Amino acid sequence: MNRLDPSEDFDDAGALDALGLNTRLKSYPDFAAEIPALKAGYLQYVAASGNAHAILNVALPDHIKAQLKSLYASPSNELPHINRMRAESDANCCPMCGSFHSGTLDHLLPKTDFPAFAIFGRNLVPACKCNSKRSTLLTGPNPGERILHPYYDDILGERLFVARFDEPGSVPRITLRPLLDPHDLNYTAVRFHMANIVERTSIMRYLKTSWMGVLRRPSLAAAELRNPPANRQDLEDILTLELDRQDDTHGSRNNWRSVFIAGLLDDPVLDWLIAAFQRPNYQPDGPLLDGIV
After folding, report:
1. Residue 243 in contact with residue 254, Cβ under 8 Å?
2. What pLDDT does 92 receive?
3. Sign of the torsion angle spanned by Cα atoms 284, 287, 291, 293
4. What is the pTM of this model?
5. Which pLDDT value is given to residue 7?
6. Which pLDDT tens digit goes with each residue over 230-256?
7. What pLDDT does residue 10 have?
């Protein structure tokens, strides 16, 4: 999950005007008559800051809807931004879920339900397979429940959740712990996004695998843990430095690696880890539990 800056080097309104003059379109000359409605739709999308609760769909004839979806699948010369965004969609982490999976270009408002925005640059976001898992889901039944938008929700630039390891040991219970105060105006949207985007991914398997890796070889969490930390504060300093490193490396405070490292910084986990490091006969970069290989 991450806040992204949308491309400013493409003129969506100008592209619509050019498409209206394209005699090769199957919808020519009808397309030109729908351009004012499409432009108005784009303007209200921006005015709503991408909030799915506030964006109104644009009524269009069926053949225009089909034309717009076709133009996304096979962009004409008037739409160079689509192929460019596809080529550049492999981000450091998925802005929708924080994974490191290969990215694709997809629609925040699905083109099946909102064909008017099928070619609109502000509706096209890089995402991994998490986008297909949520299907066409945009909002929930309760006020404020909605998917976050990488181009508009500044809250995505903050650390929103961390791993929680209850009963640390060989098989801890792993969940995601939100960091926002429940009274924060963004809390409901963040929780909805977590439940319907992030938690539908393989993040829990990633966190479990990462935890098992640390039990086997602590330096897998941070290279400085090749040698046992001198004390609890030393351990906390090492993990804090590693968290900053991961944030910077992946350009996100909500990438899966940062989610994992931040979870290790919870007080009960720090206490458990330092006790494991201080066991008698502990060997540098060795297992933190007996019987772990």
Report:
1. no
2. 67
3. negative
4. 0.92
5. 77
6. 999 999 999 999 999 999 999 999 999
7. 87
